[in-house]
């Protein structure tokens, strides 16, 4: 399998879908996402997923289903920028700030009561870790590629 396809699967698609699965499995059905899913005909599928996974909720720490989905989405978002800009990271670094600023801005807006939601320091920490891991992985990957290219 092509390395770009592997990176897309493991660093963008799987984290994105896993975050979504955690979100629909454990979050309150009063969240707007569930009405959207009902509108597009996914409510029955979500009910099946929830009936299988939700019984495990009591044995899972709250931060896993409240903070990890956002962190996985942040990781996926950052990884997509890293893949897109890996050849010209000088210009891409400005775009890399977008997911981080957006995530932190959203969380701080909740804390200030500007938008509805619950401010959580754990969310901010997960955002930092997600962005850092993505940048670290792709930077190491890119450096290894450059070393290989220069030795050939």
Structure in words:
The protein has 152 residues and is mainly alpha-helical. The chain has one domain. The protein has seven helices and no strands. It has helices spanning 3-26, 32-39, 43-53, 62-66, 68-85, 89-111, 121-151. Helix 5 (68-85) packs antiparallel against helix 6 (89-111). The radius of gyration is 18 Å and the shape is globular. The two termini are 22 Å apart. The model has no long low-confidence stretch (mean pLDDT 90). It comes from Flavobacterium petrolei. Keywords: Membrane, Transmembrane, Transmembrane helix. This is DUF2238 domain-containing protein.
H/I helix tally: 7
Order of helices and strands: HHHHHHH
Determine the structural class based on helices, strands and strand pairing: mainly alpha
Global morphology: globular
| Average pLDDT figure | 90
Low-pLDDT ranges: none
**Which band does the percent of strand residues land in?**
under 5%
Q: Span between N and C termini?
A: 22 Å
Largest sheet: none
Number of strands: 0
Rg, Å, rounded = 18 Å
Structure summarized in a few sentences:
Helix content is 79%, strand content 0%. The chain has 152 residues and is mainly alpha-helical. The chain is globular.
């Amino acid at each position: 399998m092509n390395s770009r396809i592997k990176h897309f699967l493991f660093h963008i698609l799987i984290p994105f879908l896993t975050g979504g699965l955690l979100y629909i499995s454990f979050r309150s059905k009063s969240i707007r996402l569930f009405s959207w899913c009902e509108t597009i005909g996914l409510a029955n599928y979500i009910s099946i997923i929830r009936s299988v996974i939700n019984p495990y909720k009591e044995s899972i720490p709250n931060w896993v289903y409240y903070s990890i989905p956002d962190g996985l989405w942040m990781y996926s978002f950052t990884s997509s920028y890293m893949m897109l800009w890996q050849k010209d990271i000088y210009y891409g670094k400005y775009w890399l700030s977008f997911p981080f600023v957006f995530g932190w801005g959203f969380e701080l807006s909740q804390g200030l009561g500007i938008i509805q939601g619950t401010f959580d320091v754990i969310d901010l920490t997960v955002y930092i870790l997600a962005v850092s891991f993505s940048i670290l992985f792709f930077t190491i990957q890119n450096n290894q590629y450059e070393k290989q290219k220069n030795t050939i």
